[in-house]
Design the sequence.
């Protein structure tokens, strides 16, 4: 229910597999506050995602010097990881939220809106997970993003998981070690494949994504080179696919995007462009349309 005693405000929410980022603006588009909280992948946990949205919003209100009663004046739009999964989407749509209005779609949708606005363009998101897509005439197409078990090559989660797989080969004596593998095992205090398996067997994608920075930090290592070349080939397949469908402006986004770009071919890099706005700003654009 809208609180008519307060002017409307707009909240853009970018909910990923590791972090939930929010941006609060007034009706004139002035930034009031930004905040970050935990994971917001609704395919993993509806409850955790909802709590992350509330936590990040609460932090933003505190930064802006606003009370919780302001929630009733906020028009929110969220781009959420996992929103493409029908079951998760249906459950999320039943949320008894505290906002004046709350709408949501995928994190790819808001990222594409932010990157290209109302113009045609494509994006590839390289965060904890992976997805790609494009927007044309207001219509969004989505590719990939099926989770670490089924897809998500080149994502932070995939890079970390692949590092673990090679580390297991080393521990089992199938492959030679390297400084990268030795550093990983030292950090985890693992000396055997059984120890490493026990540590990682039930780990979430965000756990593995936490080791992607180590691969980039030691990117001259033989195993790092193999991993990053594989990642680059995976991304290039999607770039080629998008280009073949007429999208020549492609934005790489997410935590590993900038670091993986030099590993792409000169031809592939030639199709890349910067985003016009952040995903959270894209979400605010959509919130204003529906207000």
Sequence:
């Amino acid at each position: 229910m809208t609180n008519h005693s307060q002017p409307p405000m707009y909240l853009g929410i970018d909910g990923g597999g590791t972090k939930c980022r929010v941006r609060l603006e007034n009706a004139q588009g002035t930034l009031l506050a930004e905040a970050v909280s935990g994971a917001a992948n609704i395919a993993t946990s509806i409850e955790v995602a909802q709590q992350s949205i509330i936590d990040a919003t609460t932090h933003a209100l505190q930064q802006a010097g606003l009370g919780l009663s302001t929630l009733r004046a906020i028009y929110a739009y969220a781009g959420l990881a996992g929103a493409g999964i029908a079951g998760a989407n249906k459950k999320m749509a039943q949320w008894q939220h505290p906002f004046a209005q709350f709408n949501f779609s995928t994190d790819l949708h808001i990222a594409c809106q932010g990157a290209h606005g109302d113009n045609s363009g494509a994006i590839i998101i390289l965060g904890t997970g992976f997805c790609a897509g494009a927007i044309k005439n207001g219509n969004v197409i989505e590719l990939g993003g099926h989770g670490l078990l089924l897809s998500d090559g080149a994502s932070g989660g995939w890079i970390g998981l692949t590092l673990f797989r090679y580390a297991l080969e080393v521990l089992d004596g199938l492959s030679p070690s390297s400084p990268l593998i030795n550093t990983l095992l030292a950090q985890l205090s693992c000396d055997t494949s059984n120890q490493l398996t026990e540590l990682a067997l039930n780990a979430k994608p965000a756990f593995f994504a936490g080791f992607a920075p180590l691969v980039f930090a030691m990117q001259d290592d033989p195993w790092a080179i193999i991993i990053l070349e594989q990642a680059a080939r995976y991304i290039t397949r999607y770039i080629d696919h998008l280009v073949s469908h007429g999208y020549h402006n492609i934005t790489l986004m997410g935590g590993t995007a900038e670091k993986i770009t030099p590993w792409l071919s000169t031809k592939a890099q030639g199709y890349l462009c910067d985003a016009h706005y952040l995903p959270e700003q894209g979400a605010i654009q959509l919130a204003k349309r529906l207000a």
Remarks:
- The CA atoms of residues 29 and 159 lie 38 Å apart.
- The mean pLDDT is 95.
- The beta strands are 9-15, 20-26, 31-37, 74-80, 101-106, 121-126, 130-136, 139-143, 250-253.
